[in-house]
Amino acid sequence: MRDLRTFTLSGYDKGRGFVAQALWFCVMNTLFMAWCCPARLRVALLRAFGATIGEGVLVRHRVRVLWPWKLTVGDHTWIGEGAWLLNLEPVTLGAHVCVSQEALLCTGSHDHRTTDFRYRNAPIHVGDGAWIAARATVLAGVRVGRHAVVSAGTVLARDLPDLTLHTAEGTRALKEPTP
């Protein structure tokens, strides 16, 4: 039987103190997510809060990032409107990655086998040229390979090799993209 009264944050490091966390939440919820905030300013805000962001990155409005200091984004990557990077642990997006509208990358989970429901978090890595399509979910500890595709509305709970398409029906190999 689960006893949630015994849950603690034991072993979980948010990576910054309370003041930095509170300041980020204020900025994220008032400016960063707003439709009127220019994409370049969103990138600058992420960098100011410790994210490592490459050149030519596009971050649309309504994007949520839990902890910017646990985010690395490669060159020319797009993060679509309403995407949620729930990065209790590091999220790394390679170059030329597309995270489409309302996609969820969730590094957090709980151990259902324990009574205290302790955290079972793990990082997410998305390889160069990969596409996380609209409303797709990538779960904790998953590696998405180079040029792999997680199709719209699917849940990815296991690593996806390079050049592989993940759909509700299963996975299949893809060909190398053409220029």
UniProtKB/TrEMBL annotation:
PANTHER family: ACETYLTRANSFERASE C18B11.09C-RELATED, SIALIC ACID SYNTHASE-RELATED. This is WcaF family extracellular polysaccharide biosynthesis acetyltransferase. Belongs to the transferase hexapeptide repeat family. It comes from the Bacteria. Keywords: Transferase.
